[in-house]
Design a protein that fits this description.
The protein is mostly helical. It has one domain. It is elongated, with a radius of gyration of 18 Å.
Amino acid sequence: MLGRVLREAAWAPAIVLVAHTVGGHFFGHEPVVDPVSHFSGGVAAAFFFRRAAEIAVDLLGELKPAGLDVLAFALTATIAVFWEIGEFASDRITGGNVQRGLGNTMRDLICGISGGGCFLVVWHLVMKWRGRGEMKRRVAQ
């Protein structure tokens, strides 16, 4: 199961982390790379948690789509908060300045959580649209 989660879900957050590192190196983190990375991280986290929950059906039980969405959204918001706590702790321990004030922290949280929410809304709409296409094909047969 873990191998399947790594293959089918973990690639999305890994790509965001690599892109954030490369983008930050070449362009600097502010004003564009950091907010885009937090939004993309929210998208990737929601995808990861939703897909991982589908794969871990033996562990979690079978969840309905709404349950998968709520779980993915809640875990995405949780990981965004813990990411910011990690940045805060890192700044305190190393004397760094990753967090540039409350406004920066709140922007990062809003970007991450809204990225996750946007992903889930789009996912729901795509699945609904695909379901209608399946229904039309069945009726046509």
